[in-house]
Amino acid sequence: MAYKVLNSVLVKDAANLASLSTDMLVLVINKNTKNDSSFKELNKKSKNYISKTVQSHLDEPGSIVLLPKVDGINAKNILLVKGLDTDTPTHKWLSLFQSIAHKGNQSKCKDISIMPGTITPKDKDELWLIEMVSKTIESNVYIFSETKNKTSKKPSVKKLTILTSGLTGSKLTKAKQAAKVGYAIGEGVNTAKYLGDLPANHCTPRIIEKKVKAMTKDFPKLKVKSFNEQQMEKMGMGSFLSVSRGSEEPARMMVIEYKGGKSSDKPIALVGKGVTFDTGGVSIKPSPAMDEMKWDMCGAATVFGVMSTLARLNADVNVVGVMGCAENMCSSKATKPGDVVTSMSGQTIEILNTDAEGRLILADCLTYVGKYKPSYVIDMATLTGAVVIALGRHASGVMANDQYLADKIIESGEESGDRAWQLPLWDEHQSCTKTKYADLANIGGGREAGTIHAAAFLSKFTNDYKWAHIDIAATASYSTPVKAGTGRPVPLISQLLLSKKLK
């Protein structure tokens, strides 16, 4: 089950813009535009109406004006956009094209044709711009309407054309490939968003299991394994299963294998937390905003989205993705504060807070994934509210036992616009896991460094490989201006894997 919105993304030359049939022709106006022959021809057809409008209405970078049908030009609408400078931060470039996608749906356009120009952020090139446009439009024409009947709205935009100037031969081939990559990443973002946006009663561990198995219909190269509670119990996953004890819904662990690289290459492993609803268990959460706990499975949704992107592109990498899915509910069978459980690693854990449940799932998934002898392991989880306080909504938190891996994650975040920031994981932080009654405690350290202490706990299960933890509690979904999933960090992880930065 992949979630693709656009039917096609094309790259073509911008010649004969006046005769181009499209619902919305988007012209990004910058200092190079006035010298572009295609723009000159179009402006001439409009009897200089376009250039006059640019001069009178487009002041601030990012400002837009929508023109209705212009005589002599086939496009039903023309959207003029004031372009950005090379020193403008990447997030503003993303926001610019997000607004174009939204405008397309608002105007009920079936297709959008965009001439993005040739100016790019510093250290980026035109191929980056084409990929970014493709990715951003695909992931922002998305509208969630799965659980609506009478008020359902579907995305109107179904086709994107990216208009370039002077690209021929190998350059044009590379441009088309860049658009294809962006399209696939955007599809992966939508797949993750869709899974996260589903209400918890429409997205239980068993429902996710069905959706994961259905992926093989779209992508035969993916191999899916699923483990039920009885199988996990046989494997000794007492830490994982302690989370689902209070729920009528049984837990599931799904493993997705993708082998696109050399058979001799060790796989990179992705592990995602998939708590489909988190009440906090016996350590119950306060009721305000508890509905947002349906997004506590966005780590698993990220794995789902990234694996679909890799399969769509036939990427030449080997990746194994693990999705640990459970409901954390409160009942007479639920795990209690003070209970001690045994993890798959053999380490015992005193559960001092049942709302620190994600790390209990990840502990056993991280142990399990060691069987693949991975070159690197990255886990993603909406793990701590503390990361929201530390970094705000703009960056995911990264902690690692390997600095090279951490560096490449940060670099990929900057390249993709899906930013991350490293927090320390020092030996001094390890004391937070000490307890009198078990090998480890699942919380410690009081209110200090909650994000780092969670990673310190996870690090106890990652001694056999190079590992990084990405806390996405701040970035995977938003509360304002509307409650919605973001699909992050699918762009970051996709960029990391496709760029072959991990050697």
Main attributes of the structure:
single chain, 503 residues, Leucine Aminopeptidase, subunit E, domain 1, 8-stranded mixed beta sheet, 6-stranded mixed beta sheet, 14 helices, 34% helix
Structural commentary:
The chain has 503 residues and is of the alpha/beta class. The protein folds into two domains: 186 residues, Leucine Aminopeptidase, subunit E, domain 1 (3-Layer(aba) Sandwich); 265 residues, Zn peptidases (Aminopeptidase), CATH 3.40.630. Helix content is 34%, strand content 20%. It contains 14 helices and 19 strands. The strands form four sheets. The protein has an eight-stranded mixed sheet, sandwiched between helices. A six-stranded mixed sheet has the order 1-6-5-2-4-3, with helices on both faces. It has a three-stranded mixed sheet with strand order 11-12-16, with helices on one face. Helix 9 links the parallel strand 9 and strand 10. The radius of gyration is 24 Å and the shape is elongated. The two termini are 30 Å apart. The model has no long low-confidence stretch (mean pLDDT 96).
CATH fold description of the largest domain: Aminopeptidase
CATH architecture of the largest domain: 3-Layer(aba) Sandwich
Which spans of ≥5 residues are poorly predicted at pLDDT below 50? none
Quickly name the level 1 CATH class of the largest domain.
Alpha Beta
Total strands: the figure is 19
Mean pLDDT: 96
The portion of residues assigned to helices is 25-40%
* Proportion of residues in extended strands: 15-25%
SS-based structural class? alpha/beta
The number of domains is 2
Q: What summary fits the major beta sheet? A: 8 strands, mixed
Principal-axes geometry comes out as elongated
The largest sheet has its strands arranged as 7-8-10-9-13-17-14-15
